What does this fold into?
Amino acid sequence: MINRALVITAALFAVLPGAIVLLASFTAGATMAFPPQGLSLRWYVELFSNADFLDALWVSLVVAFATSLVAVALAIPAAFALVRHRFRGATVVEAILLSPLAVPHAVVGIGILQLYSHLAVRADFVSLTIGHLIITIPFATRMLIASLSGLDQRIEQAAASLGAPPVQVFRTIVLPQLKMATFGALVAAFIISFDDLALTVFLVQPGYATVPVLLFGQAENNPSPAIHAASVLLLVASWVGLLLLDRLVGLERLLLHAPKARAS
It folds into this structure.
């Protein structure tokens, strides 16, 4: 009974903030208030009529799409090397590769900002994507490590014994078995990039603001219920992404099963 009450309480705390934002986004009033002052789609219409929001949405989508593709393209060989090959220092390499998981994004953002400033790198789609790669590659790599560790290597060994070269074994046997995990890693990288604020706020310049950065600025300087409407869109995108991850990979497996690299 006590356990059930604790679970229900935790669920309420998790859902309540999102529910409040959702209800407040339908207010007919002109101020950010709860409970809503009447019901209306006014702020959703205004949101999609706002040029700044549409520009920020475009930047967020382009950067998240590019980040997810590149992150997974780099994570696949990294995970394969860590799981299937014995080499000196593999544990250290894995620790370094996954270290951004334990470092606050704000700290990473400050470090990248200092590096970009030293190298005189201008803010654009490329520089922002590179920053997002640092925080998305570890998640993609972790997911692929978990999936690779569960594959039956006897099929690969049989193919190799019949004369198939390593590249062909990887392309025709390993990659097809990683299809769902790869798509899950793409989804995870996309969500992390699209929703990030702590790192992105240090890297953007006028003309390259993402949706979270734009909302943060408006909440400070010009708060309106349109912020609630935009927040609902971010929440829905995150929930859809989590449902896809749970269906494709399994959140329990992702969170609890993170095998260590093998090192000799």
In short: The chain has one domain: 41-256. Residues 109 and 199 are 4 Å apart (CA to CA). The two ends are 49 Å apart (CA to CA). The first helix runs from residue 2 to 24.
